[in-house]
Amino acid sequence: MTQFNGPAQYGFAERWLPRLVLAPSFLLTLVFVYGFIAWNGYLSFTASRLLPNYEWVGLAQYETLFANERAWVAVKNLFIFGGLFIGGGMAMGILLAVFLDQKIRGEGVLRTLYLYPMALSFIVTGTAWKWMLNPGLGLEKLVHDWGFTSFTFDWLVNPDMSIYTVVIAGIWQSSGFVMALFLAGLRGIDDSIIKAAQIDGASLPRIYWRIVLPALRPVFFSTLMILAHIAIKSFDLVMALTGGGPGFSSDVPATFMYASAFTRGQMGVGAASAMMMLATVAAIVVPYLYSELRGSRNA
Amino acid sequence: MGALAIKNVTKRFGDTHILKGIDIHIDAGQFLILVGPSGCGKSTLMNIIAGLEAPTSGEVQIGERVVNDVAPKDRDIAMVFQSYALYPTMNVRQNIAFGMETRGVPRKEQEETITRVSKMLQIDHLLDRKPGQLSGGQRQRVAMGRALARNPTLFLFDEPLSNLDAKLRVEMRTEIKQLHHRLKTTIVYVTHDQIEAMTLGDRIAVMKDGVIQQFGSPEEIYERPANLFVAGFIGSPSMNFIDCHLAEQGGDVGISLQSEGGVRFVPLLDGRRFADRLGQKVILGVRPEQIEVAEEGEPALECKVHLTEPTGPDTMIFTQINGKEVIARVHPRAAGRPGDSMRLKLDVRKVVLFDPQTEARLN
Ligand SMILES: Nc1ncnc2c1ncn2[C@@H]1O[C@H](COP(=O)(O)OP(=O)(O)OP(=O)(O)O)[C@@H](O)[C@H]1O
Ligand SMILES: [Mg+2]
C-alpha cells in the first residue's frame, strides 16, 4: 500500500494547506447557506410574525399559505412567466443563433450586441422596460405622437396583462445569452455533416430540425436548467418593472415571499413559501444533477 | 460516353488561388483518383464537383449535362466524406434512410434498400446503433452504405480510408475495388496515399498547388512521370534522383556515374536525341527496382553498401552514386551486408531524364 502513496516525508503543510485554505469558505457556506435554510425551515413551523419567535405551530403557516389567494396568483404567474420566458427565450435565442450561423458579415458585432442585455442587472432591464412600456412615457406615447391616437399598449398598468410585460423584458434579457450558448454548440458541429445532408437533398430548415438541433440536446438541457432557475427565483426584474402590481396581479413567489416576510409582518408564511420554492427548485435540479453525474460516470 | 468533364475550373478564396485551371475528362465506369500533397486543393475540387462550392470560373459537366447551376441534390451524386459525416443523433438505419426519406422513396423500398446495402457492407447487425457506438471501420462502412443507398451516376469519395489503421485500410481498399467491379459506377476518389492511387485507379490525376501535374493511367504515371514532382510523389520508396552530365563516348551519348568503387559511362538508349545537350546537367531518375545486381562478366558499377532494410520479399540497399544517396531494391539472397561491395547496373530501358531547370521529363 505505502509504495503507492508517494514520498513518505510528505510535508505537514502540503497535507493540511488545501484543507486550511478551503475551510473558511466551507464554513461560511455551511452556516450561511445550509444553516439558514435549516433555520428558515424551522421558522416555517413557528408562529413568527413581524419578528422570529419559536412557538411551534406545526403546519399552520402552510395552511395559511395555501388558503391565501395572493399566493395562488403568484404561483399562476410563475407558471405563465416561467413557461413563456423559457419557451420564448429559448426560441428567440435558437433563432438568432441559427441566423448568425449562416456566415453573415458583421457577426462579431451582432453577437456582442445581442449578448449585451445579459451584462445588465435585472434591475436596469426592469427600469428601462418600465419607461418604455409606460403608456404616458414610452411606446404608446411615441405612436400617439406619430399620429396614431387610437393605439393603446397599456399592459404595464393592466392587471390582466402586467405579468406579460415581465415576460417581454425577461426574454429580451435572456435570448442573447441563449443565442451565445447555441451558437457555440452550432460551431462545434462538423461542417461536412451539413454538406452530407445537402447532398441527401434536405432543405435548410430540415437540416437544422432533423440533424443539427437534435445534436445540441445537451446544450438544450443546460439552457433549460439555467432559464428555469432564473424564472423560479426571479425577483429583481418584477420588483423593478411592476413591483408586483398593479395590486398583486404580477406577483411571483419570490416577491410574495419578500412581501410576506418583510413588509407585511407574516414571517412564518414567508418562510413557508420559501420552503415551497426550495422544494420546486430541488424537484428540477436534483433529477438533473443525478442524470449529469450518472452520465459522466458512464463516459 | 463521358461521365465527368471538368473544364478549366478555377477557384479563388479572396486573393488566394486554390485551383488554377483544372481540366479532367473521364468516361463512364472509370475510377478516377485525385492524388496530391495536403492542401493542394483536392477537397475543394470534390466540393465543386458535388456542388457544395461554386467554381470561380470554368464548367463542370456530369453525364451530358452542365451542372454549374444545379443544386447538389439534383446532380445525381453520392459522396463519402473524409470525416464520415454521419448524423450523430440518428442510428445506422436512420442514417442510411435519411436521403431516401427526403427524396420521398416509399417506405417499403427504403426497407429493401437498407437490407441490401447493409448485407453488402456487413453492417446488418449494427443497424440500431448510433455512430458514437461504432468503431472507425464500421463508421466508414456506414458512410459508404449511405452513399450506396442511392444509385447515382457518380460516386465521390474524399479520403474515405485516411482514418483507418493500416490493416483495415488494406481490407477496405480491396472491398472498394470489388465494389467498383460489381457496380461499374463512375468514381472520383481523393487520397494522398500513393499506394491507394496506384491500386485503385483507372486514371490518376496528380495535383500540386492547384495544378494538375499529370493525368493518365497508373502505368503512364509510374513509368513516364511528366516531371520531377510526379516522379517523386508516386512510388515507394521514392524514385532516386541522380545529378549527372550528358557526355559522349565512342559515338554513344550517355552519362557517367561515379560510385565509391569507380566511374562508369552508361550509354543511354536512343541517346543521339540529346546530342544538342552534350555537357549539360540533367537529373537521372531511376526507381529502386530498376537498379539490379549485375551478372558475372557484365559491365557494372561497384557500389559500397551503407545500410540494408529487409522488407521481406525484397531488401533495400542504401548506397551512393554521384554523391547522392541511392536506394536499390534487390532480392534478399543477392543483398550484401553493410560495408560489402556490390556490382549494380541500371535498367537503361526504363530510366528517365529530367531537365534540372524546368523539372520536366526529357526522354
Ligand atoms: N473556405 C476556405 N477559405 C479559404 N481558404 C480555403 C478554404 N477552404 C480551403 N481553403 C484552402 O484551400 C487549400 C486547399 O484545401 P483543400 O481542403 O482542398 O486541400 P486538400 O488537397 O483536400 O488537402 P488534404 O489532403 O489535407 O485534405 C488549402 O490551402 C486551404 O487552406
Ligand atoms: Mg481534403
TrEMBL record, chain A:
Looking at the keywords, is Acyltransferase present? no
Q: Which InterPro entries match?
A: ABC_transporter_permease, MetI-like, MetI-like_sf
Entry keyword set: Cell membrane, Membrane, Transmembrane, Transmembrane helix, Transport
Q: Does the keyword RNA-binding apply?
A: no
Q: How does this chain sit within the bilayer? A: Multi-pass membrane protein
What PROSITE patterns does this protein's entry cite?
Answer: ABC_TM1
Q: Which SUPFAM superfamilies match?
A: MetI-like
State the superkingdom.
Bacteria
The record ties this protein, via Pfam families, to:
BPD_transp_1 (PF00528)
* UniProt subcellular location: Cell membrane
Gene3D superfamilies associated with the record: MetI-like
| Record-annotated ABC transmembrane type-1 domain positions | 75-290
Membrane-traversing stretches: 20-42, 78-100, 112-132, 163-186, 207-232, 267-290
- Provide the primary localization: membrane
A cellular component term from Gene Ontology for this protein is: plasma membrane
| GO terms (BP aspect) | transmembrane transport
Q: Which family does it belong to?
A: Belongs to the binding-protein-dependent transport system permease family.
- This protein is called Sugar ABC transporter permease
Q: What is the lineage of its organism?
A: Bacteria, Pseudomonadati, Pseudomonadota, Betaproteobacteria, Neisseriales
UniProtKB/TrEMBL annotation, chain B:
| Source species | Chitiniphilus eburneus
Which molecular function term from Gene Ontology is one that the record holds? ABC-type transporter activity
**Which of UniProt's keywords are assigned here?**
ATP-binding, Cell membrane, Membrane, Nucleotide-binding, Transport
Q: Which SUPFAM superfamilies match?
A: MOP-like, P-loop containing nucleoside triphosphate hydrolases
Q: ABC transporter domain: which residues?
A: 4-234
What NCBIfam families does the record tag this protein with?
PRK11650.1
* Alphabetized PANTHER family for the sequence: ABC TRANSPORTER ATP-BINDING PROTEIN, MALTODEXTRIN IMPORT ATP-BINDING PROTEIN MSMX
Q: What is one process in the GO biological process aspect for this record?
A: carbohydrate transport
InterPro entries tied to this protein: AAA+_ATPase (IPR003593), ABC_transporter-like_ATP-bd (IPR003439), ABC_transporter-like_CS (IPR017871), ABC_transpr_MalK-like (IPR015855), ABC_transpr_MalK/UgpC-like (IPR047641), Mo/tungstate-bd_C_term_dom (IPR008995), NA-bd_OB-fold (IPR012340), OB_MalK-like (IPR040582)
- What is the name of this protein? ABC transporter ATP-binding protein
Gene3D superfamilies from the entry? 2.40.50.100, Nucleic acid-binding proteins (2.40.50.140), P-loop containing nucleotide triphosphate hydrolases (3.40.50.300)
Q: Name one GO cellular component term.
A: ATP-binding cassette (ABC) transporter complex, substrate-binding subunit-containing
